[in-house]
Amino acid sequence: xxxSQAIGLCSSLxxxxxxxxxxxxxxARLLAxxxxxxxxxxxxxxxxxxxxxxxLEKLYGSPQQIVEIIQMRSAECGMRNFSEGSFATRDSHLHxxxxxxxxxxxxxxxxxxxxxxVAATRARPGEAVIVQPGEEGAFLSSQPLAALSLxxxxxxxxxxxxxxxxxxxxxxxxxxxxxxxxxxxxRMWRLAAGEVVERVVGREAPExxxxxxxxxxxxxxxxxxxxxxxxxxxxxxxxxxxxxxRVQVVRVRAxxxxxxxxxxxxxxxxxxxxRDRIAAPLRTRLEQAPPAGAVERLAVEFxxxxxxxxxxxxxxxxxxxxxxxxRRRALRTALQEIRxxxxxxxxxxxxxxxxxxxxxxxxxxxxxxxT
Length: 371
Description:
Elements: H1 3-9, H2 20-35, E1 41-45, E2 48-52, H3 57-60, H4 63-76, E3 95-99, E4 106-110, H5 113-122, E5 128-130, H6 136-141, H7 152-160, H8 166-171, H9 174-192, E6 209-219, H10 222-237, E7 245-256, E8 261-272, H11 275-288, E9 295-307, H12 310-313, H13 319-342, E10 348-352, H14 360-363, E11 364-368
Parallel strand pairs: 4-5
Antiparallel strand pairs: 1-2, 2-3, 3-4, 6-9, 7-8, 7-9, 10-11
Helix pairs in contact: 10-11
């Protein structure tokens, strides 16, 4: 329902302003804590993540002990103060999935992302549900159809057929379900029968490039915010680590008055290093969903990249060569600034002089770095 309808039904309703920046930061802390348990972590959405547990039994022991490690790491990162959300862990052979509603972590462990996720939704706050290998069918048979992510029309048709649980769906012949629902029917039947085991795909977490601006007085004017956005994108594009790479994912974070926050993100279909093409979707979202208050601080983050830029690829054989060329140019620029400020280079390179010598001091020498 809308806010106005809710207030009409409950005059004493208390409205809480969303704080997406805080949510994102807390979720990032959780992912970092999970990365200490397993190198394979896949964030599915805000509040839900899958963690690969294959091979962890050699480090931590039984599934129960793996779950306890996950719970302990999550508690150490301060997730007890996290608002409602949901989580899940890996799906190769051994997984865990967990959910955080009402300030308590919910963990599910099983074979496959779907089984572990359903297990997490059935766990009580602060507890875990473990589905041992071979027990997937029995566990899923009693679960409601709501565990499947289906469109409303498909749910309605399944209810009309008298199907209320995954077990009843799996009891039907697979061909009959496929004839009614097509390829989507084959997938949901296999999920209900526990035959689908989706592996967790580990994520790459590149170090983001951030450019931020703090306003002397809070800003409400959208034109001024759009102008500041352009300047921040320009500054981020000039970062040495960006040279040789195109931007694929960009997001904007804002700190508002009275402790609130605002955040938008855009994934570019065609990665680019052009300011206007990066800013275009952000300006659209700024117009459609502007901040709910005055902005005190604005930040632009490049969080994902694609190799090479169109200009550099004309002269480089591949994106790695383009990136190395960009780093060399950045190093030369930094060297010139150091010379102008300190009148000395203070940068040296190591070269081999007498590699056969038994004395380390004779094997190598330091010489000034020159462009």
